[in-house]
Amino acid sequence: MQETPAPPTSLPETAAKEQHTWGMLCHAASFAGFVIPFGNVLGPLLVWLLKREGMPFVEDQGKEALNFQITMTIVYIIGIILVIILVGLLVLIAAAAVSIILTIIAMINASSGTAYRYPFAIRFVK
């Protein structure tokens, strides 16, 4: 009985796919903010700090996700303050919708290996 050899694996391709997965998780971790206060910042920060060494794509996308979530946290705080004059509720709803949509777009791009840049984000982490 003849054994069939296992198909050759491409280590660089596997490593790239792993980076893309972790890059996507940098963005996806921001959804922790729906469960944990400030989880939208802590999630991407944790993934970025754990996986940035030796993974340039994760380094880039982690910083991008972190900067966007810090920016969105500032927008949420402004919205909470503006609730006093009733405009804040609209700001909070719009900010949440924009954050969800842009995060999903970033996840899709990162999973395919394309570095995503949010259309607006203050670059706190460089």
Question: What labels would you give this structure?
Answer:
65% helix; single chain; 126 residues; mainly alpha
Account of the 3D structure:
The chain has 126 residues and is mainly alpha-helical. The protein has one domain (13-111). It is built from 4 helices and no strands. The chain has helices at residues 11-28, 39-51, 56-82, 88-111. It is elongated. The model is unreliable at 4-11 (pLDDT under 50).
How much helix is in the residues?
55-70%
- Rounded radius of gyration (Å): 18 Å
Low-confidence stretches: 4-11
Provide mean pLDDT, rounded: 87
Run of helices and strands: HHHH
* Count of domain modules: 1
Portion in beta strands? under 5%
Distance between the termini: 59 Å
Structural class: mainly alpha
Shape: elongated
Number of strands: 0
Number of helical regions: 4
The profile of the biggest β sheet is: none
Write a concise synopsis of the structure shown.
The protein is mainly α and 126 residues long. 65% of the residues lie in helices and 0% in strands.
Question: What is the fold's blueprint, element by element?
Answer:
Blueprint: H1 11-28, H2 39-51, H3 56-82, H4 88-111
Helix pairs in contact: 1-2, 1-3, 1-4, 2-3, 3-4
